[in-house]
Write the structure tokens for this entry.
Amino acid sequence: MIMNSFDSALPDEKGYFGEYGGSFIPPQLQEIMDEITKAYLEIRKDPEFVKELGELYQYYVGRPSPIFHAKNLSAKYGADIYLKREDLNHTGAHKINHTLGEALLAKKMGKKKLIAETGAGQHGVALATAAALVGLECEIHMGEVDIAKEYPNVVRMKILGANIVPATHGRKTLKEAVDSAFQAYLADPHSQLFAIGSVVGPHPFPMMVRDFQSIVGNEAKEQFQALRGELPENIIACVGGGSNALGIFSAFLEDQEVALYGVEPAGRDIETIGEHAATMSKGTPGVMHGFKSYMLQDEKGEPEEVYSVASGLDYPAVGPQHSYLKDIKRVNYVTANDAEAIDAFFELSRLEGIIPAIESSHALAYALKFAQKEGKGSTILVNLSGRGDKDIDFVVENYGEQYGIPKV
Ligand SMILES: *Cc1c(COP(=O)(O)O)cnc(C)c1O
């Protein structure tokens, strides 16, 4: 069985990747984060925990997820394109890899409840799933506007037994959901674990979520070697908070011959604030949501408005390890815009019979551009972070006619 990596050199003791990361939170919360760090550092060495998580990956999630050689795409675009099929996981994306880890940790720490915010509901569904399995209560905070927009995910969470708390103030979307979840957490931090949904937030979450996701790259490395007898020349993943990208990159960071590409959403217009979420391409270092990283911020350090057609990618910051990997130039951060992502969504659907998540379509869109230019004739491994079932109504409503699906 292929396992997670639980022994990386970074971050340092205080949670820093170079100058990024750390923990910028009130003292009362720092105490709780220290407790989580201590529990996690012990548990990740516990053979029983490692075995339990490994078995859940295998028998519950359906790991290892295969690598698929997309021959039709490869023939059309001129490079050998392979897909790491995280879309085939139970619940349809990579997020289950870390929510299971967080749920097991919470259980071992004696917590009763998992609490989190969710935007489009993907993290909420993955967390509610893990909570149901492990036997914990689950409370998901969600903006009232998002509840209306993402109703199928709200229903899923309710069926799974989660309690949905609407955030009714301000713009009633993700930011307000974060405030609301945070308040509820601070009211009783001892019986609850705040389960962050990506490699973001204060230490230890960027480290912990990365470790739980590292299974993706560890599998991919063995699988690719078995298929081709060598490592891929290029690996491409989309970057929202950055968890699926770090999941697949982690196993290859030391392999300098493997080029790594993180794809940020250029949205409708990368030159206009509020029309994209290209944090590393257009942002600057700062502190937000308890950690230091590149972010899209105004003069006061407040988060800028962000936008992407993929609701899982529109975050104004990025995991601190990505900022570090950008500065040391180990990963190239590039972009794909809305139109390119939608094009890639239909290309994969129609050439390979795989409907990808719009988030994952950004990684694929860059892979297709790259294959036709500098990547001609090379091998490319794309992390297909999730499936597109959640996106089909939106895509057909907004882009159907352009792709030969007239409105009825
Ligand atoms: C949430 C999500 C993402 C973005 O999150 P990361 O932490 O950047 O991986 C990407 N793809 C899918 C399918 C998602 O659900």
Notes: The chain has a mean pLDDT of 96. Residues 27-43 form the longest helix (17 residues). The two ends are 49 Å apart (CA to CA).
